[in-house]
Amino acid sequence: MFDPTKPVNNASVTATELRGQFTGLKDLIDAVQSVTSVQVDGVDTLNPGDAASVSLSVIGSVLHFSFGIPRGNDGASATPVTSYLVDATNTLDPGTAAAAQVRRHRKKSFGDLRS
After folding, report:
1. What is the mean pLDDT of residues 39-53?
2. Which of 11, 32, 50, 105 is the most buried (most CB within 10 A)?
3. DSSP states of 26-87 as a string?
4. Model's pTM, two decimal places?
5. What gap in Å lies between CA 37 and CA 59, rounded to an integer?
């Protein structure tokens, strides 16, 4: 059996004592369970300001997670966007999907469109 207090500082070490320590460590390593898959058992929405949480357990060879995630505070209403400035338009090859991207900069919205 592994004994973390051995060998004591400045002690003469014997092969038998070290072999026992190494064998004890190997037994501890062999006892570690192997995880072959992961499963999320649940996700709960918590109140704003609550700490996020996670719990886990190992059942057989499956690692089980349960999460608690706080929702954000209600935000102030944003100023509605009434117009966009289009930086550029591009002609795409037939069959190529179009795309859009919108960003705000100094109270102005900019966008690209893709579908």
Report:
1. 91
2. 50
3. HHHHHTSPPP-EEEEEEEEEEPTTPPPEEEEEEETTEEEEEEEEEPPPPPPPPPPP---EE-
4. 0.41
5. 10
